[in-house]
Design brief:
Helix content: 40-55%
Shape: globular
Amino acid sequence: MSEATMLAPPEAFDDDMADDAARAECSRTWRPEELGRGSRTVKFRPARSCAGWVDPPRPEEFHDALRAERPTDRQALILRVWLSEGTDEDFIFAWMEGVYSFRQLVAAVHRAGAADESPSRNRYLNRMARFR
């Protein structure tokens, strides 16, 4: 993989979570139960991308997978699905819904061993890095 498509290290990304001011910049509105562990975006992405799974992932599982120091195989798979199937809008809306900071997301991708699996997604994420 070329250096241009390698995912930058977590410390290259901002660790800020979206707040009400950031959400106010968007035309979309959220109810409190659609934020954080109850993310509307994280609820719908696995429903679309994992419809054939016997036990589809729940938003709470994604939330926990992001924070797992040593992700289980299932958690790593959930993160890989998000990385490969999520749209640019999914990534931004999940941030706006308080699911993760971009540093948390990138750190989770690295811990799951998925940092080199999606060059196009890496390019997208790297554009959000603070010093690249």
